[in-house]
């Protein structure tokens, strides 16, 4: 009963079901059974080792993989334990995002990171999506300094959390900075 008491968003449910078996039925009546390989923000689904059963036919066809657009999905069937796993994962993510025990960790580790000002937009992302994703993925709280002169060549980013979450966030941000620095034209602006 605990799975039904907790609100679990469809996106979180799909992420919890990743790499497991699913049955997807389309609005047209066709069904696809396979292993959930990936899902995006528009709920487009990529399946592997697929068995496709058309609605009007008594035959089926095997496909190595397929992508199903989210707008055509009628329903998705998962194994019964997925709701429990998704609710638990969602609760731990919310606890970390609020600065709960998951984010404070053992010692409340803090690291100051300096990055080129022209790549801060890539770290933040369009409407803050990139920084939110980094924070949720690592469990660290990430704050970009807003103070400093407008013509500054570097910006400060402060990372808070467990030593592990801070190190993970630091490595992801450093990789993003290195990637943007190698790209033609430098860092670019927000979300570019």
SSE class: alpha+beta
Shape: elongated
Largest sheet: 5 strands, antiparallel
How many β-strand runs? 8
Q: Helical content, roughly? A: 25-40%
Individual helix count: 7
Give the overall average pLDDT.
79
- Taken as a percent bin, the fraction of beta residues is 25-35%
Strand numbers in spatial order across the main sheet:
4-3-2-1-5
Distance between the termini: 45 Å
Kindly provide the radius of gyration, computed on alpha-carbon positions and rounded to a whole number of angstroms: 21 Å
Low-confidence stretches: 1-6, 100-107, 188-192
Order of helices and strands: HHEEEEEHHEHHEEH
Description:
This protein is of the alpha+beta class and 192 residues long. The chain has helices spanning 2-5, 10-16, 82-97, 101-104, 120-124, 129-138, 163-182; strands spanning 21-26, 31-39, 45-53, 61-68, 73-77, 109-116, 141-144, 154-161. Strands 4-3-2-1-5 form a five-stranded antiparallel beta sheet. A three-stranded antiparallel beta sheet has the order 6-8-7. Helix 2 (10-16) packs across helix 3 (82-97). The longest helix has 20 residues, at 163-182.
Please describe the topology of this protein.
Elements: H1 2-5, H2 10-16, E1 21-26, E2 31-39, E3 45-53, E4 61-68, E5 73-77, H3 82-97, H4 101-104, E6 109-116, H5 120-124, H6 129-138, E7 141-144, E8 154-161, H7 163-182
Antiparallel strand pairs: 1-2, 1-5, 2-3, 3-4, 6-8, 7-8
Short description:
The protein has helices spanning 2-5, 10-16, 82-97, 101-104, 120-124, 129-138, 163-182; strands at residues 21-26, 31-39, 45-53, 61-68, 73-77, 109-116, 141-144, 154-161. By secondary structure, the protein is an alpha+beta fold. A hairpin with a 4-residue loop joins β1 (21-26) and β2.
């Amino acid at each position: 009963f605990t799975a039904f008491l907790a609100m679990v968003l469809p996106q979180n449910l799909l992420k919890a079901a990743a790499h497991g078996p699913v049955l997807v039925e389309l609005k047209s009546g066709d069904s696809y059974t396979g292993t959930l390989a990936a899902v995006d923000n528009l709920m487009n689904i990529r399946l592997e080792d697929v068995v496709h059963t058309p609605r009007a036919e008594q035959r089926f066809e095997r496909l190595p993989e397929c992508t199903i657009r989210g707008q055509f999905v009628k329903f998705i069937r998962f194994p019964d334990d997925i709701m429990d796993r998704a609710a638990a994962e969602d609760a731990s993510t919310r606890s970390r995002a609020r600065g709960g025990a998951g984010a404070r960790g053992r010692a409340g580790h803090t690291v100051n990171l300096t990055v080129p000002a022209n790549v801060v937009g890539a770290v933040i992302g369009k409407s803050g999506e990139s920084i939110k994703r980094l924070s949720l993925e690592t469990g660290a709280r990430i704050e970009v300094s807003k103070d400093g002169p407008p013509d500054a060549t570097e910006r400060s980013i402060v990372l808070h959390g467990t030593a592990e979450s801070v190190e993970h966030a630091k490595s992801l941000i450093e990789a993003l900075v290195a990637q943007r620095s190698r790209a033609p034209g430098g860092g670019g602006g927000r979300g570019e």
